[in-house]
Please model this.
Amino acid sequence: MTEIISVRFKPGGKQYYFDPQGQTVQDGQGVILETSRGLEYGECTHGNHMVPDESVVQPLRVLVRVATDKDKETVEQNKKKEKNALKICQDKIAAHGLDMKLVDAEYSFEG
Model:
């Protein structure tokens, strides 16, 4: 059996498994995780629990820490930047008459 936490990066998005590295995490807590994109913020959807080894693709990425108040401020600032970036991109698409529809703008936790 392997101890994991389940994390979601976007509401309604896919859940991913992470190694809690001995830390205890509760459902709903914000967490900072090591991902292929660098450090990212996610929400724990299922705290520490055990799953069969065969249901985990090794090696698991790791939990860096439970999110601090400063981390949460960074996430809020990034959300504001995303709204601004979305508006700028939409304006550029319109100005250049491009045949495309912008779906989303996203800032990683590290900007």
